[in-house]
Design goal:
single chain, 337 residues, 10 strands
Length: 337
């Protein structure tokens, strides 16, 4: 029989038993649709029997009142009672009926062995509570781990940004002034390199390097290298500095650094001492101009190594100098007061 036809017959199920009993004399004719109707009704009643027995066993086991499932009128009574009032049809195979007593015995045996086919109400509630606690613990762990990762990433990003900004920030020039008393930034402009030479008006060693500094300026000035004379001594007035520049013929600008801002950036300690900064204010070399001065009162007629010149050449060629610092011999820069 097609499946839609069986579905169509489902609503009038209460009428199936009387109909089958009425058609019993004609069953030997083996009408297929009568056999299907009978089997369908019997199967449904067996399902209700099983549900009713399981509910009874469950409530009896836990001492809970049985709310007796509502059963259809044609299925009221035990399966054995219905078997006596309902004609059997030998043409349809039937499974052996399991009596309620057998079900109860089997259920009692399972309970005695320590387990039951039906979960208890308390154990179900406990499993629900355990599941809820496990979910809460899992969510809390996820939140904790994600918060830790987010904070770590934020701290690392903040440190990286701080380092980048420190590396690329303009050189601090607070306290640096020109000979007219105005603030001056020696790193302003688009010079390929900036050379600072620390000198003093009363230091004979720095005065001795005036010809070498003029030679370097004439060689590298046209190639985009900026030169600055730095006077770090507080006691030197603007007039004294101006007179010193004129006397020794320095061809580039002079600035005063009484606050030692440039001294700190260039790591200068004596005069004369030089420092080379690449574009952006990055220090690449600091130290002596050359190795002419061997010691106090002892000097070579000609230098064997020109450290400042080699550092400038390296910056113009786009590479790091072979030496980033070299000890310088000269007059100590006095501490600022």
């Amino acid at each position: 029989m097609p499946r839609p036809f069986v579905t169509m017959l489902h609503p009038p199920l209460p009428m199936l038993h009387p109909l089958v009993a009425m058609l019993h004399p004609f069953l030997p004719m083996r009408r297929p649709f009568v056999a299907v109707l009978y089997a369908f009704a019997a199967t449904r009643c067996e399902r209700e029997d099983a549900l009713h027995e399981e509910s009874h066993d469950h409530h009896a086991l836990h001492g809970v009142p049985d709310p007796s499932l509502e059963r259809r009128s044609e299925c009221v009574g035990s399966s054995s009672e219905r078997a006596t009032t309902r004609p059997a049809y030998v043409g349809i195979p039937r499974e052996p009926q399991k009596t309620p007593s057998a079900r109860r015995a089997r259920s009692g045996l399972r309970a005695a062995r320590g387990f039951s086919s039906l979960p208890s109400v308390d154990s179900k509630k406990e499993r629900i509570a355990k599941g809820a606690r496990a979910r809460i613990a899992y969510l809390w762990e996820v939140v904790r781990v994600r918060t830790f990762v987010a904070m770590t990433v934020l701290v690392a990003a903040a440190g990286l940004l701080t380092g980048v900004s420190a590396c690329h920030s303009p050189a601090s020039t607070d306290g640096v002034t020109d000979l007219d008393g105005r603030s001056f930034d020696p790193f302003a402009g688009d010079a390929k390199a900036t050379v600072l030479v620390f000198v003093a008006t009363d230091c004979p060693l720095s005065n001795r390097y005036a010809p070498e500094l003029r030679r370097l300026f004439e060689r590298y000035g046209p190639r985009g290298v900026a030169f600055r004379l730095v006077y770090p001594t507080v006691e030197e007035s603007r007039e004294a500095v101006r007179e010193h520049v004129r006397e020794y013929g320095f061809p580039f600008a002079a600035v005063r650094d009484p606050s030692h801002t440039l001294v700190a950036r260039a790591k200068a300690a004596v005069t004369p001492e030089s420092a080379v900064f690449a574009r952006g204010g990055r220090l690449v070399y600091h130290g002596r101009i050359d190795d002419r001065q061997v010691d106090f009162g002892q000097a070579r007629p000609e230098p064997t190594r020109r450290d400042l010149q080699d550092a400038i050449d390296a910056v113009l060629e786009g590479r790091a100098p072979d030496e980033t610092e070299a000890p310088s011999i000269g007059c100590a820069i006095p501490n600022r007061t």
